[in-house]
Write a structure and sequence with these properties.
This protein has ten helices and eight strands. By secondary structure, it is an alpha+beta fold. The protein folds into two domains: 59 residues, Winged helix-like DNA-binding domain superfamily/Winged helix DNA-binding domain (Arc Repressor Mutant, subunit A, Orthogonal Bundle), CATH 1.10.10; 209 residues, Beta-Lactamase. Strand 1 and strand 2 form a beta hairpin. Helix 2 packs across helix 3, helix 4 crosses helix 8 and helix 5 packs across helix 7. The radius of gyration is 22 Å and the shape is elongated.
Length: 286
């Protein structure tokens, strides 16, 4: 008997929508609904329904003349895929070294919309460890990886994202308002790393640093996460230069060149890091 083939679950409308979307890849000036109907051999009324839905989801834009072009959602997906492939490959040796030196769980994340997505994870060898999985999403506003991704966005884009966030109090330490979050983001940019001091989950602490690409854009972050009983303020101070240095090395492999005047920060020995860099909340939880 022949081997059973792979099961398929064809959704005709979805397939049509995706095929219509691919038509725009080679049309820099865009297409009208009539153009799409001609190229796809579908009725204009059917094409119009697809285009309206693709536009509402951000995959297409439509100007006043009824010309459709690829939308920002396509750009975001393309950048995410490219970034994930390059960043994972460049990051793995440095994540492994960080995992070995800290003996804590190490994550690599990228931003997708209003969330951060785990694209790589190395577990802690300790019996007591945190639970997470590749592909899982976490909020931007109350996680160390998310705050890093927010902090290094261009000002206009960051303000747009902040206005879309719903700040839910997940723990008693979660930022309760936009002003408090903006203060955290300012501190992150100043210090070069962010902390999650039981803001996303009780008893879990995390420290994260940015990863720059060849254009000097932060599309990814890496983190060290562990139970609060092992992640005291003093330990976070020790890990800060390690994770910042790892982020810099990965960035350099991606083609980023850090200005010389800033390079010294990333090679500070642990004893020179300051408690102030962890924020006032840290002092209340040690």
């Amino acid at each position: 008997m022949p081997a059973p083939g792979k099961r398929t679950y064809t959704i005709t409308s979805l397939q049509r929508g995706l095929r219509l979307l691919t038509l725009f890849a080679s049309e820099e000036k865009g297409l009208s609904a009539t153009d799409v109907a001609r190229l796809s051999s579908l009725p204009v009324s059917t094409v119009h329904r697809f285009l309206v839905n693709l536009e509402s989801a951000g995959f297409l834009n439509c100007d006043n003349g009824g010309i459709y072009q690829l939308g920002i959602a396509c750009v975001s997906l393309g950048q995410a895929v490219r970034g994930q492939l390059d960043v994972r490959r460049a990051s793995l040796p440095h994540l492994q070294e960080l995992n070995r030196r800290t003996r804590e769980t190490v994550h690599l994340t990228v931003r997708h919309g209003l969330s951060a997505v785990y694209v790589e994870k190395l577990d802690s060898p300790e019996p007591l460890r945190i639970h997470s999985r590749i592909g899982a999403t976490v909020p931007l506003y109350c996680t160390a990886v998310g705050k890093v991704l927010l902090a290094y966005l261009p000002d206009i884009e960051r303000e747009t994202i902040l206005n879309q966030l719903e700040l839910k109090r997940l723990t008693e330490n979660t930022a309760s308002n936009l002003q408090e979050l903006q203060t955290e983001l300012h501190r992150t940019r100043k210090n070069g790393y962010a902390c999650d001091l039981e803001e996303h989950e009780p008893h879990i602490r995390c420290i994260a640093a940015p990863i720059w690409d060849h254009l000097g854009v932060v599309n990814a972050s890496l983190s060290v996460t562990g139970p609060a009983v092992r992640m005291s303020t003093a330990r976070l101070r020790q890990i800060a230069p390690l994770i910042s240095e790892a982020g810099l090395k990965i960035s350099e492999q991606l083609g980023y060149q850090l200005p010389k005047r800033e390079r010294s920060y990333f090679t500070l020995p642990p004893k020179q890091d300051t408690t102030a860099g962890l924020g006032k909340r840290a002092l209340k939880q040690t």
